Amino acid sequence: MMIYEEIVDEIMKRIEDGSLKPGNKLPSIRALSQDFACSKNTAIKAYIELEKRHIIYSVPQSGYYVVEGYRRREQTEETDATIDFLSAGPDRHAMPYLDFQHCINQAIERYKEEMFTYSDIQGLQSLRFQLARHLQDLQVFTVPERIYVVSGSQQALHLLVSLPFPNGKQNICLEQPTHAGFIESIRHYGKESYGIEVGREGIDLKRLEQLFKHHDIKLFYMVSRFHNPTGYSHTNESRKRIVELAQQYDVYIIEDDYMGDLDSNPKNDPMFAYDPSGRVIYVKSFSKVMLPGLRLGLAVIPDELREAFLRAKFAADVHTPMLTQGALEIYLQSGMFNAHIDRMRKLYSRKATLLQRAFQDWLPAEASYSGSLSGFYSTIELPVPIKAKQMAQYLENQHVLVDQAERMFLPDFAKDNVVRLSISQVEEDLIEKGIQMIAKGITELINRRIEVRFASQSSAQ
């Protein structure tokens, strides 16, 4: 056995017997190398291996810690017996709990007086300054005055659907399928909507132009990269052409860049970069890359909508909670966010690669799938006549959970044979096993139908 493997086994043993508890700090690299009479590189290799297994995590300038809530797989039969492609939150084992707890404590101290008063409706000014700096890394160049802090990006989307726009138009265009929450907002306000299919090659730009030209489109809602639920991303050429069409036909674009931080390609531009004047309204969330419980997001609002958006925000919740705003400000300012995102990109990229490989190796030819590089979402279109509900029920009995995507379609685009997979919370060594179970389910459900059809034909004879 290699020395680093001995270290891994020893750390595991200490965790299992309780001498190392969740949240405990592990020995430093130097101390570990001295204890095992090995090089520092060997000690680092052991800790990297434990990180890959989501048993420990690192905090920059601090050290390594045991993941909160870690227990042996044998001890968590109900949880670990289930492969969860349904839950769409970030990887629990990779979340910056201790870092953010530190930021929360600092925020309490820094803003203890302000917590007894109502905050700026638009958001904490010092946070908006940090957000403007952060957005520059995403090629979104704007000023703090145009940034509005919201209680999750869904709040911004919901408010924007309700507002009258300067173009005086009424209807909404959106990708199909799309984020179910946005469809609910459209239904809530009774807005007329027009869908346009999104696929491996993007969207039909000629069809989009016809919609803009003839259907009184107020705004076009789209996810330019790591689309929900397919995981697809538009090319720069497509993004630029969509902006040109919006300019030509006086249509606003809501660019939902909810996972833009995970894009490791610096050449990928947001749509905002092609028209920062206000035609493109940029919306971003921190839920998928950090802690969903924060309920923090932002919207870059054009000057002509700022007053109306501010009134709508005030009516909705007066202001976004001060404490979480202050903690996020400190988290961004300290550099912790950048270090966290670097880890997340590597983690989700590995998961995305494993998923695509499993799709290629195991799914039958009758099923089609979307290619996702985000490490979050992908879809499987089941062969007709298998229904998503039928597949979900079958898989649940096999302890595999998937999401039915039917609610993500407008009625005119409805598909009841699509399931969405989120791999963000699935352990890497279970991804292939889960896809094998899905492939087995497709084959078995097809065979069952053939048997039923054969039996009915025989009885008729």
TrEMBL record:
Its cofactor is pyridoxal 5'-phosphate. Residues 1-69 form the HTH gntR-type domain. PROSITE patterns: HTH_GNTR. Transmembrane segments: none annotated. The keyword Metal-binding does not apply. InterPro entries: Aminotransferase_I/II_large, HTH_trans_reg/aminotransferase, PyrdxlP-dep_Trfase, PyrdxlP-dep_Trfase_major, Tscrpt_reg_HTH_GntR, WH-like_DNA-bd_sf, WH_DNA-bd_sf. In the C-terminal section; belongs to the class-I pyridoxal-phosphate-dependent aminotransferase family. This is DNA-binding transcriptional MocR family regulator. The lineage of its organism: Bacteria, Bacillati, Bacillota, Bacilli, Bacillales.
